[in-house]
Write a structure and sequence with these properties.
alpha/beta; D-Maltodextrin-Binding Protein, domain 2; ten-stranded mixed β-sheet; two-stranded antiparallel ribbon
């Protein structure tokens, strides 16, 4: 692998923080500081500017960082080439996913992948769409699966499969037996939504506007960053919510939640593979991408 001190230096430079680099590398902060100190002593120059807000590169640090990037890329290419020769796929794979996908879709595929490639260590990071894209562009993730489309020149996106959001209510709710409600009826009902920056929130608001409802006119009583928390709030009778049908399969089977359509609202969306155009894709990354592509229902 890349020399440990260079690996630590590269992480600190990219994270702009000793503590964040420590979390990414699963090291203690004193260990990070010691590696940086040893590297600066070896080269006889300061590589990093340290202040209370963030860490920045000195001129010498920028020169070394460029070489660290090249060495890292060469190592990844060598690993991929050797994997192709030996037929073995191994290494560390960091996958990002938005909440619905990470909780209700990806676990099955990571299990399949581990059975096929037991020597690959997988880390799954779950956050909202905005944060996942930030990590992809920063090079922290090998690939991601996201809700919605994000435009960026450094991002490659591929359609994966379609999903649909639904309005959910508890079984005892008056709407539970109707199957469909008029848009205006939603104005009087307490509504629970995902947080700002969520792909689910964006699709929900677009669908509501299509049905003639401005989100600001609705009685939004709660914004939650967890699909599971939203489901439990609805089950408890705190309000109604709009979430992925994928997330309520079990609750629908056991009659814990009911689906209701809103007339005129289109909540369909496409889930996408998203990865950094400039980040090297290892054999493990390519294998995981191929597994996901083969799962496409369309």
């Amino acid at each position: 692998m890349l020399d440990t001190q260079l690996l630590v230096f590269k992480a600190v430079a990219e994270q702009k923080s000793f503590s964040r680099a420590a979390r990414v590398l699963h090291l203690t902060q004193p260990a990070i500081s010691l590696h940086i100190q040893s590297l600066e002593e070896y080269f006889g120059t300061r590589l990093l500017n340290r202040n209370n807000r963030q860490v920045t590169l000195t001129e010498a640090g920028r020169v070394l960082y460029n070489y660290a990037l090249e060495l890292s890329k060469l190592y990844d290419e060598a690993q991929k080439a050797l994997a192709e020769v030996s037929g073995k796929v191994k290494g560390h794979l960091v996958v990002g996913a938005t909440l619905t996908i990470g909780e209700y879709f990806l676990p099955r595929f990571t299990g399949q992948f581990k059975q096929q490639y037991p020597e690959v260590e997988i880390t799954l990071q779950i956050a909202n769409t905005q944060e996942i894209i930030r990590r992809v562009l920063a090079g922290d993730l090998d690939l991601s699966v996201i809700e919605g489309q994000v435009e960026h020149p450094n991002l490659i996106q591929e359609d994966l499969f379609q999903d649909e959001l639904v309005l959910i209510v508890p079984p005892g709710h008056p709407w539970g037996s109707r199957g469909e409600v008029r848009p205006g009826e939603l104005k009087e009902e307490p509504l629970i939504l995902r947080e700002e920056g969520s792909g689910t929130r964006q699709v929900a608001e677009a669908g509501l506007r299509q049905a003639g409802l401005e989100p600001s006119s609705l009685k939004v009583i709660m914004e939650l960053g967890s699909t599971q928390a939203i489901k439990e709030a609805v089950e408890a009778g705190l309000g109604v919510a709009i979430i992925s049908r994928l997330a309520i399969r079990k609750e629908s089977r056991h009659n814990l939640l009911r689906e209701v359509r809103i007339q005129g609202a289109d909540f369909r969306r496409t889930f996408h593979l998203a990865y950094n155009r400039h980040k090297f894709r290892s054999a493990a990354t390519e294998a995981f991408l191929e597994l996901l592509r083969s799962s496409r229902p369309f």
